[in-house]
TrEMBL record:
Origin organism lineage: Bacteria, Bacillati, Cyanobacteriota, Cyanophyceae, Oscillatoriophycideae
Domain ABC transporter, first and last residues per copy: 5-237
UniProt cross-references to InterPro entries, sorted A to Z: AAA+_ATPase, ABC_transporter-like_ATP-bd, ABC_transpr_CbiO/EcfA_su, P-loop_NTPase
Keyword Nucleotide-binding applies: yes
Pfam family, one: ABC_tran
CDD domains the UniProt entry points to: ABC_cobalt_CbiO_domain1
Protein name: ATP-binding cassette domain-containing protein
Gene3D superfamilies: P-loop containing nucleotide triphosphate hydrolases (3.40.50.300)
Record key words, sorted: ATP-binding, Nucleotide-binding, Transport
Highest taxon above the source species: Bacteria
Keyword Transport: yes
Protein species of origin: Phormidium yuhuli AB48
Molecular function via GO: ATP binding
Length: 248
């Protein structure tokens, strides 16, 4: 069982700009891929391709040895679940938001309650959040509920786009520990885009470093030169800021 990117590229609709270029990688059960790169590197676009919100303009993505483009999008999204950077509860309460995707999947009432209890417990979601709507939650709390909603669907691949960006350090640690535990406990692949290198270091079994849509490095996390990567980020951010100042 694997998720494979085979020389995947993505161009803008005009065909003028290459957004992702020639990305290859292979993930199997238990893998935890950290996708790193400065802002604009292509991390979110990569997650969108994996969730079939967009299709590559060149190359192939294979899920369980089938081209993703040949699997109906709804089927893909039942197995490969994306938690976007800014999640919404679509006007529902926390309770409804977690239960709704399960109802759509035909999960029975007792099982829905069981999963709600399980994920609220594992993610330490207090019961007084359950009747609240997103207007009564902070950005970080909303992000947290979106993660619970995704996990309750029992995905086979979980795609997280900057899941800890609005969370305090404690919640970030709970999430990383939980993900590490889950990938060992059940058949799960996790792909997480994250700016925060210290968190990626605690989480990832593999690391993909993107810069300007290109793969700078990809391999086991144990091979990563973390201080070197940090310095690379600082330099890349400085170059991006200088460009920004020259071309405001
Ligand atoms: N539909 C589009 N048309 C043209 N350019 C796009 C499109 N979508 C994204 N881009 C550009 O592609 C680049 C990569 O965007 P992406 O959102 O994947 O970056 P990112 O690494 O996730 O950044 P961040 O960390 O800020 O979320 C950016 O320069 C963005 O402006």
């Amino acid at each position: 069982m694997s998720l494979t990117l085979d020389r995947v590229s993505l161009m803008t609709a005009s065909g003028r700009l290459m957004l992702l270029e020639d990305i290859s990688l292979r993930l199997t059960w238990g893998d935890r891929l950290g996708v790193v790169g400065i802002s604009g590197a292509g991390k979110s676009l990569l997650l969108r391709l994996l969730n079939r919100l967009q299709d590559p303009t060149a190359g192939r993505i294979l899920w369980r040895d089938r081209p993703l483009t040949e699997i109906p999008s709804l089927e893909v999204r039942r197995e490969i679940v994306l938690v976007p950077q800014e999640s919404t509860l679509l006007g529902m309460t926390v309770h409804e938001a977690i239960a709704y995707p399960l109802t759509l999947r035909g999960v029975g009432t007792a099982e829905i309650q069981h999963r709600l209890d399980e994920w609220c417990d594992r993610l330490k979601i207090p019961s007084d959040w359950l009747p609240k709507t997103e207007l009564q939650l902070s950005l970080g709390q909303r992000q947290w509920v979106a993660i619970a909603r995704a996990l309750a669907t029992q995905p086979q691949v979980l795609l997280l786009d900057e899941p800890t960006s609005a969370l305090d350090v404690g919640r970030g640690e709970i999430l990383i520990n939980l993900l590490n535990h889950l990938t060992e406990e059940r058949s799960l692949i996790v792909v997480m885009a994250n700016h925060q290198l210290d968190q990626v270091r605690q989480f990832a079994s593999q690391v993909l470093h993107l810069q300007g849509g290109r793969r700078v490095a990809y391999g086991p996390a144990t091979d990563v030169d973390w201080p070197g990567l940090h310095d690379n980020f600082v330099a890349a951010r400085q170059r991006a800021d200088e460009n920004w100042n020259l071309n405001p």
